[in-house]
TrEMBL record:
Entry cofactors: a divalent metal cation
Biological source species: Rotaria socialis
Protein name in the entry: DDE Tnp4 domain-containing protein
Boundaries of every DDE Tnp4 domain copy: 44-171
MF term (GO), any: metal ion binding
Amino acid sequence: MVISWTLFVYSVVSSINLWPTKDQIQQALPFETRKNYPYVRVIVDCMEFEIEQPANPQTQQDTWSTYKNTSTAKGLVGITPNGIVSYISPLYGGATSGKAIINMDGSQSLIELLEDGDNIMSDRGFSLDSKYTHLTLIHPPFLDRQKQLSSQQVLQTRIIARHRIHVERCM
């Protein structure tokens, strides 16, 4: 009964188009975002929640999350710059990386919804495949070989964090 109800709710909710047009995003863009990142279309993060351990060993491996130290399901959530949920991905096993999920293509993928020139804001755990040259990923800078971030990089990290916090609050 619970599974039937869950499948029903999923079919209803997944048929709702949450994705706003580029014009709708631009019209509702908060001042701070417009000033710092005027082309941000979506702010993303992964959500992960515990599931019952699968019986199948391969599925156990696919769902094992080293971060949570248990079996999990993971999905990508996107919000508009003004804080409205605009994208929810299908769920994947907890072993799937955020990078892999954001680069998935297909009918329900974020990549399919984005248009030329769109910017995606994320944390450091995400990167775009090189084939997506028409998109820009905005994330805090990495240390690379530096011992510490420059003052400009620290400022950039803080600004991005102020925008990204809303996607974490939403989850």
